[in-house]
Specification:
mainly alpha; about 170 residues; single chain
């Protein structure tokens, strides 16, 4: 997605800065920044902010249970978001494009916890939502990860994936 944001959004900018902190290895500071933002947004705040923050926070946890808590929040927030809201942030975005990644992350969390039935339900949802993914590197990355997680679920493998967010891979 190469389009520019439709309007400045200080909360999304702050989330982006925290994500960069996490990618640069400062996990504790990134979590602190995101938790501070979460407290400002509130559990009933802007669904786009909540979804983006929770999805990003989950990636800061190596522990599947910790990631799961945030991934559930991200999915709940996405369910409350609208295309109108996400397009106000970034023209061309559609909320449907969020679901493959959200369900993928939940499937991977449940798989790592050994809850293969729940993992299977979410990987099925990710596969069903995959047509909403854009063509290009991001869509390809998510489609590949869906295949990897589906194979791991079939094998009842609970090992972290090397290519998963937060794994250093």
């Amino acid at each position: 997605m190469t389009e520019t944001p439709a309007a400045p959004d200080p909360i999304m900018d702050a989330i982006g800065r925290a994500v960069v902190q996490g990618h640069n290895g400062d996990i504790a500071e990134a979590r602190t920044a995101l938790l501070d933002l979460w407290n400002r947004i509130g559990v009933t705040g802007d669904p786009l902010h909540r979804c983006t923050l929770a999805h990003s926070m989950a990636d800061l946890y190596d522990d599947a249970a910790g990631a799961l808590a945030w991934d559930v929040r991200a999915l709940d927030a996405a369910d409350a978001a609208t295309d109108e809201r996400v397009q106000a942030h970034h023209a061309g975005l559609q909320i449907a494009g969020f679901y493959p990644s959200l369900h993928l992350n939940l499937a991977d969390d449940y798989r790592r916890l050994g809850s293969f039935e729940a993992a299977g339900a979410h990987i099925d949802a990710a596969e069903q939502a995959a047509p909403a993914l854009p063509e290009g590197p991001y869509g390809d990355l998510i489609r590949r990860a869906v295949e990897e997680v589906a194979a791991a679920i079939a094998e009842k493998d609970t090992a972290p994936r090397a290519s998963a967010p937060g794994s250093g891979g």
